[in-house]
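Inputs:
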Amino acid sequence: MILKIAWRNIWRNSMRSIVVIASVSLGLLAAIFVTSFYKGVTVQKVNDVIKLEMSHLQIHIPGFRDDYLPADYLNNAQEIKRQIQNKYNVKAIALRSIAMGMLSSPTKGGAVKIIGVDPVEERKTTTLYTYIKEGSYFEGGVKHPVVVSRKQADKYNLSLKSKVVVTVQDVDGEIVSGAFRVVGIFETDNGMYDEANVLVVQTDLNQLLSIPDRSNEIAVLFEDHDDVNSIADELQLQYPSLEVKSWMDLSTGMRFLVEAMDTYMVVIVGIVLLALLFGIINTMLMSVLERTREIGMLISIGMSNIRVFSMIVIETIILAVTGGPLGLLFSWLTVKYFSEHGIDLGPFRETYMDLGFAPVIYPVLEPHDFYMVAIMVVLMAIIAALFPAMKALKLKPSESLRKI
Amino acid sequence: MKKIVVQTIGLSKTFKGPLPVHAVQSVDLTIEDDEFTAIVGPSGSGKTTLLNMIGGLDRPTSGSVSVNGLDLNKLSDHELTNFRLKHIGFVFQSFNLIPVLTARENAEFILLLQKYPRIEREQRVLQLLNEVGLQDKVDSRPSQLSGGQQQRVAVVRALASKPDFVIADEPTANLDSKSASNLLDIMERLNREEGITFIFSTHDQRVIDRARRVITLVDGKIASDERR
Ligand SMILES: Nc1ncnc2c1ncn2[C@@H]1O[C@H](COP(=O)(O)OP(=O)(O)O)[C@@H](O)[C@H]1O
Ligand SMILES: [Mg+2]
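Outputs:
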């Protein structure tokens, strides 16, 4: 009966209730959409980082990634590769040599990171070959091939078949140079990556560095994304003199980005709910105030404090919670639509790409996000209910009956 | 001698303020079972204040009220609410009913709070609504009822759980004279046939004429108390 009264009371001032219910659902829609957008950005960034740059984990000599000294090579890279392949469900493993150096064309020179790859293994490990816009990914039998980005091609005034000189420090610290010929030009969504990296064949680079048959880096891509962190820990124990890091720790800020994802959602939804909380408290206080005489009458004829309290609490909770499922439904539909069609950032494209983010965002929402939001809405409703309900309890029957 | 339902001893209520109001002053009053008593007096004479203390809605400044021998001063607020629920029926001047409930649901409300079984609730309430001539209005909301019909629903609610007595503070004040006399007929009949004790206040002479005992208040004191 109390439930019935509460439900009908809500529809007494239906306009007011509809406004509250609509604001709860729209508020949730906004909060969830913003969150899913952010999640989409993060997930895309993660995929990008894994597929294009880092793979799932990498192994180096400790400190290699600070200075990129050719002397910091792995002695038994092939052996480690075999061991990992035997032990885990591995998709691909790439061995690389890496050096910092100068790229010079007849008109210009600049600093780049030179990555020496085995084209066959690298194709299985990273997706760079899919971003080739001109030429090919080390095909065609050209001697000393190099693959550069569109950005670099523009900067150094290069085109296919252009000749460039790569200058590096070899294993003994000598400055050495080699001539390479452009065979492919790539363009990814990640402007920062494009600016920094050029790719050559590992044996060519090793020759230049005087580290034949060596590698500085092992990059591993597993079939399964989920256990990567624990595998990294396991391998670190197995190879204590090396540095084993998962993608989360290889790319600056990634761990934070991923771990902050859920916190971020709680904060955004929390702020929206806080704003709604005040609206609901206000509405219910008004409703209690308007019903002073009626509530006074109920207490007079013997309705106990507990029951009056529950009546207002139930009313508030129904009012606050009804918008919840609606909001979740709207959010689900909206996110579903955009997760299929994507959100093109239009005029902000360039900025985003320069920051290393993709220009089209596919928002992401997971089931546990829904539970989390649902729980938060219910919590908010309970908090919103307490204040008006206490107000109702403070009414003195004899006094509230006298008010006209 | 008849059973004493309500007894007040030196009952007083003073409202504090810059000018304290002595709304009720040392009232000694005894109400017996089956009485049909009117508390009369001009506006501001203390009728409501007196009825509120007798009904356990307000606490006296001094003196005491006992209902069937139980001193209401000894009850906590919570016990007092429960006592009202089980032992006293109330009919107010207006705003008696819950607007979102139908006549039947309103009438059942007290039985429901007392957790009567559904069948018993329905039987009792339908029978009473029938007795007060509202058989056609059981599913109407208060807004669809006239003032007199609303007051009759309130009387049914007050009676439904067979309280020790019914307090009605100016139940006819908002009614036209025909509805007022109709309500009085009903109250009188329930008093006569079912032995319900009524204490009601009024300043309407036609209502006063129907009472069997008339207690007149002047400035919060009993000025006269006549039975007829
Ligand atoms: N809550 C209150 N505070 C101050 N004075 C009050 C209050 N309630 C009633 N009074 C005063 O007490 C006196 C008696 O009031 P009341 O019992 O309502 O009289 P009646 O019901 O006979 O009109 C009046 O003077 C009224 O102004
Ligand atoms: Mg009065």
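Remarks. The pocket of magnesium ion (ligand 2) is lined by residues B 47-48, 169-170 (CB under 6 Å). Chain A is about 55% helix and 20% strand.
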